[in-house]
Write a structure and sequence with these properties.
The complex is a heterotrimer of chains A (321), B (577) and C (330). Chain A is built from 12 helices and 2 strands. Chain A is an all-alpha fold and 321 residues long. In chain A, β1 and β2 form a beta hairpin. Chain A is globular, with a radius of gyration of 25 Å. Chain B is an alpha+beta fold. Chain B is globular, with a radius of gyration of 24 Å. Classes of the chains: A mainly alpha (321), B alpha+beta (577), C mainly alpha (330).
Chain lengths: 321, 577, 330
């Protein structure tokens, strides 16, 4: 029935931008599939501790009987030793179960990356808000700070600074090992990541602060903090969501890259980057060992990229689809 | 003595006539054939062509006073001659005189050594090699602040009554313990203590002639003056080095070297897998190439499966590199805990982590079985590790039950290098299986040995350390004193005695062994200490002796395993037509 | 415009100053003693003390930093007045702890390899990205569009440490189409240089082209519907002129920004790329230095990388001004 039927007026349900966006998103099949993939990996990582009970072994347990000691300690059997006991085969040289290392690796990589994302987002949003809203000297200071952080060759500096930060933590009494490495990794990834979020937020805040609703609130006597956190921030959730979705892949791959280069979690903790690194000497004889974490990482990043695109398209009315 | 892990210099794992070779003055009726050049021709060798060597890393140093790495100690013999050297012919390795004309004589049981010198040696520019040059070569090694990286044997063994500090800081000083004869045809060394094996020590570069006028100090590393069959034409650090023939080298003066190729080109910067792949696939330039530092890892399985196909170019040999675990006797004071650690360590998973039976062979001692005077096959934790390398879990638990309140938290230190992380993971698993709680301490390789050697109060020391040792020469004297003698330690630095071993009863045995001048008897006494330290005091847990696997291009001949340095040697290589 | 340039340069120098302070601070917070590291294997306490004095590590922090900065501009002499005096010409970044070589020389040595990768790859990624994007925009909605977009998406989602390994295995080990990646000077052997660089170029080109494809496509689509394009069409300008003059030019601005940042970052030493492909460039030098805790090289490479990034940023801003008239007037 047409809304303009004057004999039978129906209420026009005005929809908020969020509702509009949500309905766009709901009908986007790609978004559903990619969200499904993302949640699948997170789920696998979350329930990882169940699998050792099913497979009756540990991700760190060595299985010397699965290796041929006279042939360079390579897995016996094809495709890297796939069997009913070892769904993805076993690692060369150690005989550790690859499926278990894969799911526990997902747990490690994703928890570090997602924690770093949360930290970077909180810092980035806060600084972007303050910088964009107050302008002037505050903005100059933070913009300069962002420039400095962005001028650092991040991976290189992360490599150099990891032992330094570790020793700081060790001196504070934290035992050496993952207890120091993981906080350092989160710190490093977040430190080099927050400017990407802060930049976008700042830009949005600058355009928002001149809008009428802000003028109105000011006229009503709202305090600066109220304006920032009660008026502007709620309107930022869209660009924040998009930026986060598009930057998460970077946090994940940076985590894997750092571990790949040796600055990540230490043995025997499993991690996708560590699996890739360990597989390098064997990719000629046991390509499965490289492919498993490699393809998984690819699919996960792809899913996040598609999801981010879908969210942005849903939120952007002017979308250039 | 500051012997470190990197060295692989060793004498004859094969020709152990050496251990029976006493250093007492012998009147040779006739000069042994092996002392006289030329070196015996290699069957089928032809002259000409370019030998290519492809390496991952550059040589650390080729200045003789600064070289301490096995593979480069062998390679640089293309242009460096030392007082004595090793020669491997038909699988037999012997110590032979190089710049010297004999292996030295001593009138006082090893405190003074006199070597006759060859008198017709020339440098690459035609000038004569003199005794004064030989003395100067040793003197400049005293300036190890500038010429760092080498061995400290000269400083350690020679007398130094004037307190000579090196020609750069002490230009007018003299090292009076080295005396050249008036005619310059012999040289005498006066030592601070008797050293029966001094002729082995003089294989090192601090006993090599360097003309004072041409000494460019730290830049000598870029262009050493050659006395060997080749000279350095160009050396771009990190990139490449080219050697060309030295026309002033006379093969008749040299029993240890050959000069088949016209040119030798070394290229650095290759990556392990890519290089291994190139050599394995034998394509292009790789056909005439070999590597000094690239073991076969990835393709090992394939080579082993099709062994006959590769037999002419695949070399698998036991290196003198011992891989073992040092147990810190300062932090793990309870003998039952230390013995339990020995029992818990699973040699099988460790060797698998390293690459299986082709990566090494199990060992029960720090002494390789080839040193027959010092080695014996004793049981550890009640079994022969060669037959039963698996962990002895029940025995370990029984030992721990004897000390109920003992320390069960262990810190395991290892290097960030090669397969060490996997090996450490295997050890962690094994120790945890008997109830230990193991914290992993991963250290960067550049600072590893200095860090685990620290004994300062306040420093948290590791309890179990993954360590290696390659002896400087094939006698127990090159192993046990450095690794187990408490007197090598200082209050703040354990040096190479990572176990911090200092048991009074063992130290007494060391002092007694010092007094033995016969090389064979000395080996046996030190072998006793090795056994007691392992079985009675659980100072270390040996794991395996490393096997090296190399593959070379099919167009190369004459490549052989050098028993002196335990490496694959290009010295007698030739390029097939 | 000149005043803007001056302001940007001053800003860039400030940024570099901060970077240098942070990086220099590394010397003092690392767990290992720099004198110990420089000392090497056969170290004695006397030797270490001599080295500590010679490298001026016994001076207060500010003095060391000041000498360091002075050395960059004017050169530096260690152990002045003694026989062992070392003169390090400007720009002096010190000597490597491992090999005693001048850090500046090491950097100079490694720049050509990194430059080769960066320039070759950047040409490729711009070509691939731009053509993919243009094709997509012009054939919007067709399967060509979908395929191009998919291609770009794959590139954006793959990781170099995975793709690099796989492609090496296929094209170098198995098919032998290309030579094992490495570096020879193009002036010595151009054919070998190309055969060794082509795999890194193609890999990087593919992976980094993604964002350019997206930007080009989006930019073109947006601009094609803009008012002034409609006006131009109404005025009778041919389609071709419209497309190539107005559309591309306007869409270029965000592309130029990203290009500058990508190139700047890559020149700083693409650490992972050089590690995976074993190219002896700045990135490889840096990772080796970190492994060896060779502080002077670490400081030198980070500083150089930061300089590249800052300069790239300034150039991008300038280019921005040239391309976009609106910015010029602000």
């Amino acid at each position: 029935m047409s809304v303009l039927d004057l004999d039978n007026p129906t209420r026009v349900l005005g929809r908020s931008p969020s509702a509009i966006a949500w309905s766009h998103l709901k009908s986007d099949k790609t978004a559903w599939v990619s969200a499904g993939v993302v949640f699948f990996f997170i789920f696998i990582g979350a329930i990882a501790p169940i699998f050792p009970h099913i497979l009756h072994t540990d991700p760190d347990a060595f299985h010397p009987e699965t290796l041929d000691e006279n042939m360079g300690a390579m897995p016996i059997g094809s495709f890297g030793g796939i069997s009913s006991a070892h769904w993805f085969g076993v690692e060369p040289r150690t005989g550790r179960d690859i499926f278990l290392r894969f799911v526990f690796g997902a747990r490690t990589s994703l928890s570090i990356a997602l924690t770093a994302t949360i930290v970077a987002t909180v810092i980035g949003v806060f600084i972007g808000l303050i910088s964009g809203f107050f302008g002037g000297k505050i903005d100059q200071f933070f913009s300069r700070l962002m420039e400095i952080v962005l001028a650092f060759p991040s991976i290189l500096f992360a490599l150099a600074v990891t032992p330094v930060l570790e020793s700081v933590l060790t001196d504070a009494g934290i035992p050496q090992g993952n207890a120091t490495r993981i906080p350092v990794m989160i710190f490093v990834i977040a430190t080099f990541g927050w400017p990407y979020i802060a930049r976008i937020v700042r830009g949005q805040v600058i355009s928002l602060r001149e809008r009428e609703f802000i003028e109105a609130a000011k006229a009503l006597g709202a305090s600066k903090w109220h304006l920032v956190f009660r008026e502007i921030l709620p309107n930022l959730w869209a660009p924040i969501l998009v930026t986060v979705a598009l930057n998460i892949p970077t946090f994940i791959t940076t985590e894997a890259a750092l571990t790949f280069l040796g600055a990540g979690v230490i043995e025997p903790t499993s991690d996708w980057g560590a699996m890739l690194l360990a597989s390098v000497p064997f990719y000629g004889v046991d390509p499965m060992y490289t492919f498993i974490p490699g393809i998984a990482l690819f699919i996960l990043v792809l899913a996040f990229n598609l999801l981010g695109d879908s969210v942005r398209d849903a939120l952007d009315p002017k979308g250039s689809r | 003595m500051s012997l470190r892990n990197k060295l692989m210099a060793a004498v004859g794992t094969l020709a152990l006539g050496l251990t029976t070779m006493s250093m007492a003055p012998t009147a040779h009726a006739a000069t042994p054939a092996s002392w006289v050049g030329p070196a015996p021709a290699v069957k089928g060798a032809v002259s000409g062509g370019t030998l290519t060597i492809l390496d991952q890393g550059d040589f650390e140093h080729v200045d003789p006073a600064r070289n301490y790495v096995g593979s480069s100690l062998d390679f640089y013999r293309f242009f460096v001659r030392t007082l004595t050297t090793y020669r491997t012919v038909n699988g037999v390795t012997e110590l032979v005189p190089d710049v010297a004309a004999d292996l030295g004589t001593t009138p006082d049981n090893g405190r003074t050594w006199t070597f006759k010198l060859r008198t017709n040696l020339k440098y690459e520019d035609g000038s004569k090699v003199t005794c004064a040059d030989l003395k100067y070569g040793t003197m400049r090694s005293y300036n190890d602040d500038i010429l760092d990286g080498g061995t400290t044997y000269a400083k350690d063994f020679l007398l130094n009554p004037t307190g000579f500090k090196g020609p750069y800081t002490d230009p007018t000083g003299d090292l009076t313990s080295i005396v050249c004869s008036a005619k310059g045809d012999s040289i005498t060394y006066k030592l601070a203590q008797p050293v029966p094996y001094f002729a082995y020590v003089t294989t090192f570069g601090s006993f090599s002639p360097v003309p004072k006028a041409k000494d460019t100090k730290q830049n000598y590393d870029l262009k050493p003056i050659s006395t060997g069959p080749y000279k350095v034409q160009s050396y771009n650090r990190g990139k490449n080095m080219t050697l060309v023939r030295n026309k002033y080298w006379d093969p008749k003066t040299d029993p240890a070297r050959w000069n088949y190729p016209d040119q030798i080109v070394v290229k650095f910067g290759y990556e392990q897998n890519a290089l291994e792949q190139q050599l394995f696939s034998d394509s292009g330039e790789a056909r005439k190439s070999m590597s000094l530092d690239t073991n076969v890892i990835t393709n090992l399985s394939e080579i082993l499966a099709y062994r006959p196909m590769y037999k002419d170019r695949f070399f698998s040999f036991v290196s003198p590199y011992a891989r073992y675990y040092s147990i810190n006797m300062d932090t793990v004071k309870d003998i039952n805990v230390r013995k339990a650690i020995q029992c818990a360590i699973d040699l099988k998973t460790i060797l698998l982590a390293a690459g299986g039976t082709n990566a090494g062979s199990y060992s029960n001692s720090l002494i390789p079985s080839s040193i027959s005077n010092g080695y014996r096959n004793f049981d550890i934790c009640g079994r022969d590790v060669h037959k039963k390398p698996e962990a002895q879990i029940a025995a370990a638990k029984a030992l721990l039950a004897k000390s109920p309140g003992a320390k069960m938290d262990l810190i395991l230190a290892y290097r960030d290098k090669g397969v060490e992380p996997q090996r450490a993971a295997a050890v962690q698993q094994a120790l945890q299986a008997v109830g230990f709680k193991v914290t992993m301490q991963k250290l960067p390789k550049a600072v590893y040995y200095t860090t685990i050697g620290q004994r300062d109060p306040g420093v948290v020391q590791p309890d179990v350390m993954q360590t290696s040792w390659g002896f400087d020469w094939a006698a127990v004297s090159g192993i046990v004193p450095a690794l187990l003698d408490g007197r090598t330690m200082t209050a703040s630095d354990a040096h190479s005695n990572y176990s911090r071993q200092n048991e009074p009863s063992l130290q007494l045995l060391f002092e007694k062994a010092d007094l033995i001048t016969d090389a064979a008897k000395s080996d046996k006494a030190l072998g006793d200490i090795d056994q007691k330290a392992i079985v009675d005091f659980a100072a270390v847990m040996p794991a395996y002796f490393e096997t090296s696997n190399f593959i070379v291009g099919s167009k190369l001949g004459g490549v052989k395993v050098d028993g002196g340095y335990g490496t694959l040697s290009p010295l007698a290589a030739y390029v097939k037509k | 415009m000149l005043s803007y340039l001056v302001r940007r340069i001053v800003g860039g120098i400030t940024v570099l100053a901060f970077v240098s302070i942070f990086v220099f601070g590394l010397f003092f917070v690392i767990p290992a003693d720099p004198a110990r590291l420089a000392c090497g294997k056969s170290c004695t306490p006397e030797l270490m003390a001599e080295i500590r004095h010679g490298l001026e590590l016994d001076q207060p922090l500010q003095v060391q930093y000041f000498r360091f900065v002075k050395g960059i501009f004017f050169g530096r002499t260690y152990l002045p007045g003694t026989e062992a005096a070392l003169h390090c010409t400007a720009p002096c970044l010190g000597y490597s702890y491992q090999t005693d070589e001048l850090v500046t020389n090491l950097l100079k040595d490694r720049v050509p390899a990194t430059l080769s990768i960066a320039i070759g790859a950047s040409i490729l990624w711009v070509l691939i990205g731009l053509s993919s994007g243009i094709l997509s925009a012009l054939r919007r909605g067709t399967w060509i569009d979908k395929f191009s977009q998919g291609f770009a998406l794959a590139g954006a989602s793959l990781q170099i440490y995975f793709v690099g390994l796989v492609l090496q295995f296929i094209f170098v080990d198995k098919l032998a189409w290309f030579h094992a990646p490495g570096y020879v000077s193009p002036f010595e052997d151009p054919k070998e240089w190309a055969l060794e660089m082509i795999l890194p170029w193609l890999t990087l080109g593919f992976l980094l082209s993604a964002i350019y494809a997206r930007l080009t496509r989006a930019g073109m689509i947006e601009v094609m519907s803009e008012d002034y394009i409609r006006t131009a069409r109404a005025k009778g300008l041919s389609n071709r002129t419209i497309k190539f003059k107005h559309v591309l030019r306007a869409a270029l601005t965000p592309i130029v920004t990203v290009f500058g940042l990508d190139l700047g970052g890559l020149l700083g030493g693409a650490v992972i790329t050089e590690y995976v492909f074993n190219i002896p460039g700045l990135g490889k030098l840096a990772t080796e230095a970190v492994t060896n805790v060779d502080l002077p090289i670490i400081v030198g490479t980070v500083l150089l990388a930061a300089i590249f990034i800052v300069v790239a940023n300034i150039l991008v801003d300038l280019l921005y001004m040239v391309l976009d008239p609106k910015v010029r007037l602000s």
